[in-house]
Specification:
The structure is a single chain. By secondary structure, the protein is an alpha/beta fold. The protein has seven helices and 13 strands. It has helices spanning 43-55, 85-94, 99-111, 125-134, 138-147, 200-208, 263-267, and strands spanning 5-10, 13-20, 22-31, 59-62, 118-121, 157-158, 162-171, 178-186, 214-217, 224-233, 239-248, 272-283, 287-297. Strands 1-2-7-8-9-11-10 form a seven-stranded mixed β-sheet, with helices on one face. Strands 6-5-4-3-12-13 form a six-stranded mixed β-sheet, covered by helices on one side. A hairpin with a 2-residue loop joins strand 1 (5-10) and strand 2. The chain is globular, with a radius of gyration of 20 Å.
């Protein structure tokens, strides 16, 4: 059952309100690092997950690096071998200065069928790099374009490098029974972490994110799902335990290829590609969550 109301509390916080009953369930698609314009993006697999999100009426949270955008005129990383052929054709027609517009418009067209399912597009290091060096915001432009295509009141949030999605639940079967779930998304920082896959960050995040129930990370293209239990003392002086789930989504970039050459082949091992599904369900009083990773190896 979809949210009864969605409120954008600030530029990187939103709250979705749900009325729960026995048998209630709601799917969420958790993604990051699409690098959608890269020639190495596994678009077929990305579309497969987005189509399933439509089928499941799932809300989508994206934790940054929707774009790759490394082929700009003044980008030292640029390589036309890394550009999708259709973009090269468009640039021949429109000129090199149209590069960012070509990619953004293509992304708007691709994500348009799923616009009503997206809650937030967070920013990643590729997205913010474009803002810093080119004075444009591809995420803001993408969200603006998608919101113009949505009929009704739903609006996607152009979030930050980190932000919050709060889910509020009110039971229609048990008057006054209310609960909430707080999801912290953060694109991620640091290097590849080839041994730990970034798991050490969960210990750090457990310290400075005491209010989170779910922490969604991206950035290093690894995949994990781990849970940490906490002992708590409530206002009635009763001891109880809760669990924080730490999720890292790998994204859809297959830059390692066959391992012959390129940045990924030189600097890091091959990475999985995919997403994580979160299923919320309720007996009418409490809400439980389950996570399922949908990942596979990169395609050569």
């Amino acid at each position: 059952m979809p949210a009864t109301k969605i409120v954008h509390n600030s530029r990187n916080v939103l709250t979705a309100y749900f009325e729960i009953t026995g048998g209630w369930k709601q799917w969420f698609l958790l993604v990051s690092d699409q690098h959608h314009d890269s020639i190495d993006c596994a678009r077929k697999y990305e579309k497969e997950h987005l189509d399933l999100a439509l089928e499941r009426d799932a809300y989508i949270i994206s934790a940054g690096d929707t774009f790759d955008m490394m082929q700009g005129k003044f980008d030292p990383r640029k390589s036309y071998h890394g550009m999708r052929p259709e973009y090269l054709h468009e640039m021949i027609t429109q000129g090199n200065e149209a590069y960012f517009d070509i990619i953004t418009n293509d992304a708007i067209k691709f994500y348009s069928p799923y616009a009503g399912n997206f809650l937030v597009f967070g920013r990643g290091n590729h997205d913010t790099s474009i803002e810093t060096h080119n004075g444009i915001s591809p995420i803001s432009n993408l969200v603006f374009g998608l919101n113009n295509q949505i009929k009704g009141d739903h609006r996607i949030q152009a979030g930050g490098y980190g932000g919050w999605v709060k889910l509020n639940f009110a039971s229609s079967e048990s008057r006054g029974n209310r609960s909430s779930m707080r999801i912290k998304y953060y694109h991620g920082g640091g290097g590849d972490a080839p041994v730990t896959r970034g798991m050490i960050n969960t210990a750090r995040q457990a310290v400075y994110l005491p209010d989170a129930d779910v922490v969604l990370n991206g950035h290093n293209h690894n995949s994990y799902n781990t849970s940490i239990a906490r002992e708590r003392l409530n206002d009635a002086s009763r001891i109880h335990f809760d669990v924080v789930d730490y999720i890292r989504t790998p994204g859809y970039n297959c830059g390692y290829g066959d391992g012959h050459s390129g940045f990924e082949a030189e600097k890091m091992p091959p990475k999985p590609i995919g997403c994580v599904w979160m299923l919320l369900s309720s007996n009418g009083r409490t809400v439980k969550r389950e996570f399922t990773a949908s990942v596979k190896g990169g395609m050569v």
